[in-house]
Every structure is written in structure tokens, then in C-alpha cells.
Amino acid sequence: HEAPKAEHYLSVLEEIAAGIRTGRGRSADYIPALACVDPDRFGMAVADLDGGVCGVGEWRTPFSTQSITKVFALALVLAHEGAELWDHVGREPSGNPFNSLVQLEYENGIPRNPFINAGALVVTDRLQTATGDASADLLAFLRAESGNPELRFDLEVAASEAAHGDRNAALAHFIASYGHIRQPIPPLLDHYFRQCSIEMDCADLALATGFLARHGVRADGSRLLSRSEAKQINAVMMTCGTYDAAGDFAYRVGLPGKSGVGGGIVAVVPNRCTVCVWSPGLDARGNSVAGVDALDAFTTLTGLSVF
Ligand code: GLN
User: Which atom from ligand 1 is nearest to the alpha carbon of 68?
Assistant: First the structure.
């Protein structure tokens, strides 16, 4: 690949880390196991297209990936069934919080997009049908793409979320009433909570997102998605990846991105590199405050937005 190696970005990352203000926002507290994570923590990594990676701060500290996994589940389902998926989940920004129910009733139980919880439940249901073990399949994919065989579920986080999972259960039951979920809800929720509980560090996540910068090609050189499918996922990340803050994220960062309530955000510079940042202090919409600041600084300092 012609694109620069990961080390090329190290001085920019160091500059960002030196200037970052952490400690703003609050760690997710609706999942009790995440509430105790210190909002001051910060790490950031860049991966190049050839598997090189470098980072600053706590870039090798595993954290809870949460909704970032929705990107990988979507990719696997698109690889299995292609465009049929879009009969069951839309691709419009919701303008509503990630766990909102309100639009489902007006839209025949079809979630607005695959990155809000409603849409992610449909995607995980379809991955389960395709593979027979959705969360294990996802974990295997992430281990392969990150090159880290140690990746694991954090079953304590999964159990903590399950114990407070009424909202996701309500979403799943409501969608099922329209026929867009095919399996019983309890095992679907188990897979979804396990999926969200996968622990990864910034290096793992930047590497695992690489196929989206390589137009659908996996770490081992095999093709997961067509060029056009990879473009579709990047587009949906741009418009929906940070929920009701996607407009502001596009305005400030200008890259396809996906956040999670563990405080991580991944971003893709197609044909060039991927970036992952982690800082657990969240804003009211569930996005990392210092994480968005850091990505804003990254595209400002490097000029690398898609615009
Ligand atoms: N597991 C979380 C939930 O379903 C994921 C949400 C998120 O990261 N935005 O609420």
C-alpha cells in the first residue's frame, strides 16, 4: 500500500494527547459494571492498511467495546446475506437517542438504522440465523482481524447489562411483534449483551476496523465485502454512527465513525488508516467527550477528513 505507515501519525497523536482535556462527562451508569470506570482515562491509536499500529496514552488497555461491535455485526450480516438485510432495517439517521422506541411504531417495526439498539438487535438476530452462534462468530472475526487471540467477552459486564436490560428487551419484543426478529427474545438478548461486552484496546479496534479502510478486504487479504458494501457501511457510520450527534460528528470530525458507551470511538480514513480513541467520560448522547475532541484534532492537524 502507498499510504503512510502508522508511525507517521505518532507525533500528531502525541500532540493530541498532550492537549486533551479528560474528566468531562460521565461514565455510562445504566450498566452498573461500567459506572465505576474512571472518566479521566485516555488512549488513542492509528492503524495503517498493512497491520502496523501505534498509539499514545492507554492505547493497550482493554475497555468495553459496546456499540462499536454493531459495525462488525453489520459487516458479517452483509457478507452473509447482502442487500436482503435492508428489507428489515433502514439506513436513515434517527435523530433520536440510541435506545429510543418511538419511531418503531410509525415505521412498521423496521428500525431506522443498524447502529441504534433497535437496528442492532435485528442485525444480531440475522447473524444468529446465519451462523448458529452470533456472539462467538463475531468474537472469532474480531480475534482474526485484530490479530489478538486473547480477546474475550466480559461476562460480568454482560450480566450487569442483562440485569438492567428492560429497554433492550422492550425493543426486541416490539420489533418481533412486526415479524422482523425471528428467534425467541431471551437468547437473542444473551447474544446481544455478550457482543456488547467484548473487551478490546485501541490497537485491537483500530486493526479490526481496517477492512473498512481497505474497501472490504480483511487482514489476511481475503475479501469480506464488495467495495460497494464497504462504502455502504462507511456511509451509514457517517450518518448514523454517533446517533443523534451524527451531524455534529460529521461537522467536527468528517470521518465515518462509531461510538460505544464504554467510551470508545473508531473512525475510518478510507484507503489510508483507521483510528480508535478511548475516554470513558460521555456526553448526554452517549459519545465520549474527549474522544470526539481527539478525533476533531486528528482531522484538523492531518487534514484527513473525507471532505
Ligand atoms: N450495550 C449498550 C446498550 O444496548 C450499547 C449502547 C451503546 O454503546 N451506545 O444499551
Answer: 8
In a domain, 1, yes or no: no
Give the CATH number for residue 152: 3.40.710.10
Q: How many CA atoms lie within 13 A of 95 on its CB side?
A: 2
Q: How far is the CA of 61 from the centre of ligand 1 (A)?
A: 20
Task: Please indicate whether residue 63, judged by its CB atom, sits closer than 6 Å to ligand 1.
Answer: no
Residue-wise pLDDT tens digits, 173-215: 999 999 999 999 999 999 999 999 999 999 999 999 999 999 9
Strand ranges inside 124-271, DSSP E: 152-153, 198-200, 257-259, 264-269
- The reply to whether ligand 1 has any atom less than 6 angstroms from the CB of 124 is no
Q: What is the pTM of this model?
A: 0.97
307 occurs within a structural domain:
no
What's the CA gap between 215 and 46, in Å, rounded?
17
Cα of 3 to ligand 1 centre, how many Å? 34
pLDDT tens digits, 153-175:
999 999 999 999 999 999 999 99
Dump the DSSP string for 20-32: ---S-SB---SSH
113 marked among binding-site residues: no
Residue ranges making up the domain that contains 102: 6-302
Into how many domains does the chain fold?
1
- ipTM of this predicted complex? 0.95
In a domain, 75, yes or no: yes
User: Which of 34, 117, 287 for a ligand 1 pocket mutation test, highest count of atoms within 8 Å of Cβ?
Assistant: 117
On whether residue 26 sits in a domain, the answer given is yes
Q: Count Cβ atoms within 10 A of the Cβ of residue 19 and give its class: 0-12 exposed, 13-18 middle, 19 or more buried.
A: exposed
**117 pocket-lining for ligand 1 (C-beta < 6 Å):** yes
